[in-house]
């Protein structure tokens, strides 16, 4: 089934499809088995039909996500369904939806279920869960990426049109790269985190996985908005920094012109993968074909910032988020997760202030790059690992996967991961484009142009991109 939003919307508007019919077909196609460990709690047919039937007296033209099925990472609240954060003993059943979930339902979207994740959203691998390691949508021996593991694989396998993840260190981008999806990490505060189990509260954001960048833009439009209940929610400014908005707010195809920063060759890391360097160069050429100009930049301030996230005291935020639980029930936590979060106790208040001073200096230093480029382009991840490899070296593998992702929220950037090619073994490869805060729409415009410039398939479905 083609679940691209524009395709489903056309069927609804023509009267060829009703939400209840889609839900019945989707339920049958997903089935009752879950060999890839995608779901923690999938809604049953009757539960999904409740949402579908509420739509059928409404006009599809009035709701931008009318009848569109979506999955929800299980650290985000869906009313009446337990939120576990992949820890059964932590589970609670919320009485109301997370703000972002409510916005999507109000726009017509239909929840399909709650998805598996690295416990407490701590990891980029998708293996740190008592509900099982989520398997890659292309090859079950490989990791799905995490922490938003099930959210990505559910979309890639055609079980949902889009899904919600969270992204603190790369959890909304690495799984996108490994499953041939678009993963948009919004500006922090653009989407409410009310009703989301925090990882690092000052850095968390709700992310979007979708089959296309156009779909992600459609979802973002409905999901965003200031929320007074979220202390970290931010109003979108009425006027953006002019450079990127001017460069990207155009039609693409050779007439446009924008500059993109690329790390120096010696600053790129592919972790002994023989194929991904060439795939990254291919992606650069794709950007140049639609009007981009590559500019070499010094990437060292970004890499130094990335190291702060787990090597510095920010890991203490993860401890603070579940302090009562980890102190009262330490044995309920997945071993690798407990080791990482438990390490927070070694940091002092002095360490925290010193790290804040260092971050401030790095923010100033890295900001200078925006005088020379409109956006920055990196691989989303330099390589991908087998599940067995991650189990053997969980910390090292995870650290390698965060090389290009961990700095984003510390530097207050918006970012979009997009698929750009495949390795010879059939596993996907992708890049991430990033820019200063609140340039989300412009990044998705560019990602849409990139997808439209070459033939693309949707996730792991084998269905071709429907260009609109």
Side-by-side strand order of the widest sheet: 1-3-2-4-6-5-10-11-9-7-8
Compute the separation of the termini in Å. 18 Å
**H/E series, N to C?**
HHEHEHEHEHEEHHEHEHHHHHEHHEEH
Low-confidence runs of at least 5 consecutive residues: 251-255
**Level-2 CATH architecture of the largest domain:** Alpha-Beta Complex
The overall pLDDT average reads: 94
Which of globular, elongated, flat, extended, rod-shaped describes the shape? Answer: globular
CATH fold assignment of the largest domain: Amidase signature (AS) enzymes
**Biggest sheet descriptor:** 11 strands, mixed
Number of helices: 17
GO molecular function, one term: allophanate hydrolase activity
Pfam families: Amidase (PF01425)
EC number: 3.5.1.54
Domain Amidase: 46-444
Written overview of the protein:
Helix 2 (19-30) runs antiparallel to helix 3 (45-55) and helix 7 runs antiparallel to helix 17. Mean pLDDT is 94; it is low at 251-255. The protein has 468 residues and is an alpha/beta fold. It starts with a helix and ends in a 15-residue tail after the last helix. An eleven-stranded mixed beta sheet has the order 1-3-2-4-6-5-10-11-9-7-8, sandwiched between helices. The chain contains 17 helices and eleven strands. The chain has helices at residues 5-14, 19-30, 45-55, 99-106, 149-156, 174-178, 213-223, 242-248, 276-289, 300-311, 315-321, 323-328, 335-342, 349-367, 387-392, 394-401, 440-453; strands at 39-42, 69-73, 110-115, 162-166, 182-185, 206-210, 258-263, 292-297, 375-379, 413-422, 428-436. It has two domains: 5-223, Amidase signature (AS) domain (Amidase signature (AS) enzymes); 242-439, Amidase signature (AS) domain (Amidase signature (AS) enzymes).
């Amino acid at each position: 089934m083609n679940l691209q939003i524009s395709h489903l919307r056309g069927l609804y508007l023509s009267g060829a499809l009703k939400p209840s019919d889609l839900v019945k077909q989707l339920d049958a196609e997903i089935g009752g088995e879950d060999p890839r460990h995608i779901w923690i709690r999938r809604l049953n047919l009757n539960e999904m039909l409740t949402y579908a039937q509420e739509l059928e007296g409404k006009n599809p033209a009035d709701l931008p996500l009318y009848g569109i099925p979506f999955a929800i990472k299980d650290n985000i609240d869906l009313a009446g369904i337990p939120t576990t954060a992949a820890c059964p003993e932590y589970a609670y059943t919320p009485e109301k939806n997370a703000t972002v979930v409510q916005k999507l339902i109000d726009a017509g979207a239909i929840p399909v279920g709650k998805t598996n994740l690295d416990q407490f959203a701590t990891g980029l691998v998708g293996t740190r869960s008592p509900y099982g390691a989520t398997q890659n949508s292309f090859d079950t021996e490989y990791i799905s990426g995490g922490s938003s593991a099930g959210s990505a694989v559910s979309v890639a396998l055609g079980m949902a049109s889009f899904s919600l993840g969270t992204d603190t260190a790369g959890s909304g981008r690495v799984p996108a790269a490994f499953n041939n999806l678009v993963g948009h990490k919004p500006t922090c505060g653009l989407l409410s985190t009310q009703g989301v189990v925090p990882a690092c509260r000052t850095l968390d954001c709700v992310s979007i996985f979708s089959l296309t960048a156009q779909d992600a833009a459609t979802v973002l439009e409905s999901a965003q908005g200031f929320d007074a209940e979220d202390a970290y929610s931010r109003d979108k400014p009425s006027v953006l920094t002019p450079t990127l908005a001017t460069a990207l707010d155009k039609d693409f195809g050779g007439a446009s012109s924008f500059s993109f920063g690329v790390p120096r060759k010696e600053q790129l890391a592919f972790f002994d993968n023989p194929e991904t360097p060439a795939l990254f160069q291919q992606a650069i050429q794709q950007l140049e074909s639609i009007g981009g100009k590559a500019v070499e930049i010094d990437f060292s301030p970004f890499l130094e910032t990335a190291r702060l996230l787990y090597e510095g005291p920010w890991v203490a935020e993860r401890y603070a988020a579940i302090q009562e639980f980890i102190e009262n029930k330490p044995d309920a936590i997945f071993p690798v997760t407990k080791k990482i979060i438990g390490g927070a106790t070694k940091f002092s208040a002095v360490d925290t202030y010193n790290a804040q001073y260092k971050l401030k200096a790095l923010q100033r230093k890295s900001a200078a790059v925006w005088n020379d480029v409109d956006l920055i382009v990196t691989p989303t991840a330099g390589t991908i690992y087998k599940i067995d490899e991650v189990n053997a070296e969980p910390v090292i593998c995870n650290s390698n996967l965060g090389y290009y992702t961990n700095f984003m929220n510390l530097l207050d950037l918006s970012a979009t991961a997009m698929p750009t090619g495949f390795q010879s073994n059939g596993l996907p490869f992708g890049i991430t484009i990033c820019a200063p805060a609140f340039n989300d729409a412009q990044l998705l415009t560019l990602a849409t142009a990139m997808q439209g410039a070459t033939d693309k398939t949707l996730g792991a479905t084998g269905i071709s991109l429907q260009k609109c």
